[in-house]
Model the fold of this input.
Amino acid sequence: MKNFIFQNTTRLIFGKGMISELHKQIPQGKSIMVTFGGGSVKQNGVYDQVIEALKGHNYVEFWGIEPNPTVETLRKAIDLGKSKNVDFIIAVGGGSVVDGTKLIAAGLKYDGDAWDIVKKGYADDSVPFAAILTLPATGSEMNEGAVISRTETVEKYAFTNTFPQFSILDPISTFTLPDFQIACGIADTFVHVMEQYLTVCGQSRVMDRWAEGILSTLIEIAPEIRKNKQDYDLMADFMLSATMALNGFIAMGVKQDWVTHMIGHEVTALHGITHGQTLAIILPATMSVLREQKKDKILQYGERVWQVTSGSEEERIELTIKKTEDFFRSLGLATRLSELNVGDDSIAEVERRFNERGVAFGEAGNVTGTVAAQILRAAK
Amino acid sequence: MKNFIFQNTTRLIFGKGMISELHKQIPQGKSIMVTFGGGSVKQNGVYDQVIEALKGHNYVEFWGIEPNPTVETLRKAIDLGKSKNVDFIIAVGGGSVVDGTKLIAAGLKYDGDAWDIVKKGYADDSVPFAAILTLPATGSEMNEGAVISRTETVEKYAFTNTFPQFSILDPISTFTLPDFQIACGIADTFVHVMEQYLTVCGQSRVMDRWAEGILSTLIEIAPEIRKNKQDYDLMADFMLSATMALNGFIAMGVKQDWVTHMIGHEVTALHGITHGQTLAIILPATMSVLREQKKDKILQYGERVWQVTSGSEEERIELTIKKTEDFFRSLGLATRLSELNVGDDSIAEVERRFNERGVAFGEAGNVTGTVAAQILRAAK
Done:
């Protein structure tokens, strides 16, 4: 096991009707900004619950944080927040709203342009903020990271050091999500686990089993959710899985990969394809191209998660990758670039960008632009 | 899934040589108390490392926090701490030292007798404190609870609301532990998981799998540790399991039991038997007496953790309980009260105490003194 330091300070408030806890959690005497995406929270009743809890507080609303939130939008929120001396923020929506709010929170404590914080990869300070989550996927509600896009330059990067003070998750607020968003959320959660798990064997028995436990849960609940997305216990398991998949709980003492995400972010930046959808396309290809390096862990994953126990090692690896791709397909997602008209020119552009950055990714630090292009070609 | 609020603020600093992080973590300008049990930390080198890190700090040492720490001892530490205006404490040792330190930390912020805090079950305030853990077992290094004994009245109770600010866990510091302490630590960890897991089915798929993941890990590593307790990766897995077993991570949204602990505490209070040893005796008997109520979960546990899949339900339950008892026996522990000369008079006394308190325990709230006595008779 690798040495590690773990700390996660976010208070997780979870369950049916728990948005009613909000009024107890909001600190008194603050100038509050409430941030939103589009209008879905007005349809599912969450907006009304939040406004009710804010009675007696001084607050301003900021609407329009888009999927793959852009620094261009967030600069406006930061300007508004500075003009109102905002010192507490409540994000209401999915992972994009939470991610965007993290940059607003950091930007309010920074004098220069907010993109500096993203490029630095680290927020030195931020105003306290909370989240009311309505879409399980990114884990942003209980971690310190955020991913921000920049339209001007078609870039997408992550920064860190921004934990929500608290997050409220009511599975009922997910009942009205479109099927495609649920599918992408399940794929995103699945791949978050894989990025922390599918590296090498023998690092931590507990972490391995916790990762496998989330994967097995997703595989078990996904077809049931397709049948009935208003089953409370199913959606509660999905929502808890998404949070636990990326809050550091399964990352203790183990190497991490993140190649699928690094490539996926580029595909999103270039084509605007939803994040979870890109991951469903890239992950099986990553496994296929890196099958030698990841051999032992793919075999363990195949055996424990997919009950693949017979055949030669090569056959078991092949079947395990196929089962992974089939799983994403069963969610209703595309699993090939060609289905979404991503062609060779985009592959070349991703290769160029990887090379330009001059860093190689993955647990072995060997995924250069050349390897990324191999992975993308395997995903065609 | 039940509604829940989860928060765990402790910074976990884990790995080989990580005690060297201590000097960076100690806040400046504090009047520090360092608390110890017996002298084992002088043999394993931990004492020297701690003293090295404390160079330049103002500190006082308090020695002699015993296993099953007593309020009588801790009152002395509180008096010393008050006289020195102590405002930061570092506990160095096993769970008893950490538990005792929690009462010292709370007692330093309380004007009356420290036993009031234990009887109230909750510390309103406490001075910040940290732990250097040398014995994996109680989970106290990353939770807010502590169990304190009172010699005068032969009582043992828990109180809460005291999270360590940080805890440092170096698996190497466990290499010199006596076999019996390791066995009790494994049993304690196993039963902590069972208290949160072996209730009813269908509450949370993730929490079930995480609990089963720790149990399976303990079953896998225990015989290997018996062969070589200086294998770093084995002891790291054990140490991480013990912390994860009782830091709230597997308790989200699920009912809890704690009957085995409630009975075990009484046996320890009456006979001074080591905590983990009492649990190894009581758990199989609890499962046996409550087999109807816990039927579905015992079957799931048997199948997933012990691969018990054939036979009638009654046969599978019987075999699963037997495998649990055999596991404790394989650790070198007693699994029957008669082996430790606990007789009918003690059973009657535990029954009397349960009835006197007038509360019934367990996930169904039905374990009265009468049922506790049944469990103890089944453990004879």
Q: What stands out?
A: The CA atoms of residues 5 and 82 of chain A lie 34 Å apart.
